[in-house]
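Quick start: what a row looks like.
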Amino acid sequence: MAVVTEKVASKVKTDPKVLLELKGIKKYFPIKGGILQRKQGDVKAVENVSLELFEGESLGVVGESGCGKSTLGRAILGLEELTDGKIFFQGKEIQNLRRREKLKFVKQMQMIFQDPYASLNPRQRIGHALEEVFTMHTDMSAKEKRETVISLLEEVGLKEEHFYKYPHEFSGGQRQRIGIARAIALNPSFVICDEAVSALDVSVQAQVLKLLKSLQAKYQLSYLFISHDLGVVRYFCDRVLVMYLGNTVELATVSDLFEKPLHPYTQALLSAIPRPSVNKNRTRIRLQGDLPNPANPPSGCPFHTRCPIATEKCSAEKPAWKEYDPNHYAACHYAGQSIL
């Protein structure tokens, strides 16, 4: 892995280059029923998502459970077949490539899972599990593979002695470090963190986030950071994408989103962040009702059934995705209006 110089890192910030581009991504899951298991409808998990992710950037994706965050991440990596849309990586459309052509892009795109223990073989030593990556994708000798794996373990804060241990002998934080080591093994440029720290204690979360940031600075990694924790997103990410019922409702830099949220749903999410305040009374925005059924989404704006400022226009007409401030986008007929 080549270390990124300060000059290159500065260029990434001032003149960002698009690494990943999504155009009209849709992912529907068919609903089947009856004796013949005929299709009766679709669960619209991801609905017409378009965005760009830049080199060296951390893009957070937030929203309630069931909003399509994880499905979007899996669709990008090809773990879920797209219903519609296009994915461009390093300027190349990748979803329809042949297996051999796609393999070189797959090496550049990796994932860190929420539960690393579930993705590890409990009967296999950690060192041997990590060696499999190089067995499949390189022609390294046994000695080279072992030395590389030990170097990887040390890179993520583990020791050589951990090479021969089994998954159950590690703590949750250590297992997540192993997941990170596996994700960066092939020197990728893009990593999806799917709730990568949500199962960890707060102190361990801080350690893992610090590790991810140091690896990003060192190797110019780009992250798609999927999370429920807005506090973590605020600390870790550069921009934030807010999703609701498979739709994108707001996209902005971290500072703009937290200081001036435009969409009512974003305002409700931010009001739920616990903050210690002795002299200030904070108003919690409580949304009424449950998340609508993605198999039968509401007409017009998908959020109108729970929005306190919704009008007839919201139920009849789906709002356009517009740029209201520089690099601040939202899909709302009344963007910027407070719902307090």
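That is the whole record. Confidence is low (pLDDT under 50) at residues 1-13. The CA atoms of residues 194 and 226 lie 5 Å apart.
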